[in-house]
Write a sequence for this structure.
């Protein structure tokens, strides 16, 4: 059956059901013949509702479940004119979103749309450069599936300019490139950005420990506190040791400084960080990082955790928590879903412990591994002691266990305690 014939056979119910996720690329004639069936689903009222929620500086375009454009807002016209793209000012309703993409780009966006339409991603966003002849501009695209009352789904694409930090980002890119050729700059940046900062989270007590195997290493702790009371914290372990690992750890911290924002979800920050790690590594270089990202909120006991290849945190009451482990960053330029959960400290215990595998995978002279079970016991035994005693107690037990065996990895711990309500 031809593409046109297949499409003509679809009913309005098909558009909301069995035809979902097939992403057919069909001719304009076929779309025109099927358009009345789309209108029968009450699309117009839904689009009017969505359009009212879009800010004045944003563009909005909406696609249906077959990735056909069904709506663009007025600002799309000026956006296209500013980019000297008159062919886009009249973006035809029915244009297929995958049309015009090359093989790699097409495969990537097909994967993204499949995850969105099947509910595996609540949204997806990425930044891109789209400069006009007069100025350099950076946009953020956010794609969100919107479920309709009749069971159908719309894919809402919203763009907004974010280049208020363009100069800062350009400076960051230059510093990242300089790290590949200047070992002394790497050490300076590592000392300043990785070893010196003290983690602080409003509404929580914090103590931490970071010990590289050599003068520099691949473990890192990073945090960013926002004006709205949110704080993002990352504990990560970059592959390798010494100078090479410190380059990537330093790059990660610099990119996090540039990418993090309170309105961005942890998964979105990790997606941008993953792309950045792949883009800014030296030729023929391979490096990946495992870790976990937390988002704390002052005045709330609930903590969001996004996992990228790291063991789950340990809690003072419930111990180890079951959490899916996501793919490490810097491996593939696809759209892995980094598992994100929200955990309540009132339920699991007022304290949590995050750690790198240099702690749990420390061996003793008999070849036994320290492990999560022993770490959990020591951590929970300190529940009634001051927070500042927790890390020294774990290190003392770790040293007793290690005996004469060598330390062979960077070691990092982060302990966070919820402050009692006033």
């Amino acid at each position: 059956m031809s593409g046109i014939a297949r499409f003509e056979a679809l009913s309005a119910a098909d558009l909301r059901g069995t035809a979902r996720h097939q992403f057919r690329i069909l001719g304009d004639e076929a779309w025109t013949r099927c358009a009345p069936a789309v209108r029968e689903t009450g699309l117009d009222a839904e689009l009017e509702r969505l359009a009212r929620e879009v800010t004045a500086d944003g563009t909005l375009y909406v696609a249906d479940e077959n990735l056909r454009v069904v709506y663009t807002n007025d600002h799309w016209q000026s956006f296209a004119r500013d980019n000297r793209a008159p062919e886009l000012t009249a973006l035809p309703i029915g244009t297929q979103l995958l049309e015009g993409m090359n093989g790699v780009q097409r495969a990537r966006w097909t994967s993204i749309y499949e995850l969105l339409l099947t509910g595996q991603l609540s949204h997806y966003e990425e930044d891109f450069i789209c400069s006009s002849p007069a100025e350099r501009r950076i946009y953020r695209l956010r794609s969100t599936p919107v479920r309709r009352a009749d069971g159908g789904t719309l894919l809402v694409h919203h763009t907004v300019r974010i280049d208020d930090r363009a100069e800062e980002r350009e400076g960051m890119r230059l510093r990242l490139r300089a790290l590949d050729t200047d070992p002394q700059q790497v050490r300076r940046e590592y000392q300043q950005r990785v070893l010196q900062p003290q983690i602080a989270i409003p509404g929580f007590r914090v103590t931490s420990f970071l010990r590289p195997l050599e003068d520099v290493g691949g473990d890192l702790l990073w945090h960013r506190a926002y004006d709205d009371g949110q704080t993002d914290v990352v504990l990560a372990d970059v592959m390798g040791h010494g100078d090479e690992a410190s380059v990537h750890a330093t790059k990660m911290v610099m990119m996090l400084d540039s990418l993090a924002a309170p309105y961005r979800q942890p998964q979105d920050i990790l997606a941008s960080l993953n792309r950045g790690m792949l883009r800014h590594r030296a030729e023929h270089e391979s490096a990946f990082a495992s870790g976990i990202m937390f988002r704390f909120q002052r005045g709330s006991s609930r903590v969001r955790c996004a996992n990228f290849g790291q063991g789950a945190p340990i809690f003072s009451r419930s111990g180890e928590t079951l959490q899916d482990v996501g793919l490490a960053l810097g491996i593939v330029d696809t759209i892995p879903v980094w598992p994100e959960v929200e955990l309540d400290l009132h339920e699991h215990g007022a304290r949590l412990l995050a750690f790198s595998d240099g702690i749990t995978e420390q061996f003793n002279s008999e070849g036994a591994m320290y492990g999560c079970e022993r770490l959990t016991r020591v951590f929970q035994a300190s529940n009634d002691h001051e927070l500042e005693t927790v890390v020294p107690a774990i290190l003392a037990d770790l040293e007793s266990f290690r005996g004469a065996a060598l330390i062979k990895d960077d070691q990092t711990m982060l302990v966070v305690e919820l402050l009692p309500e006033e």
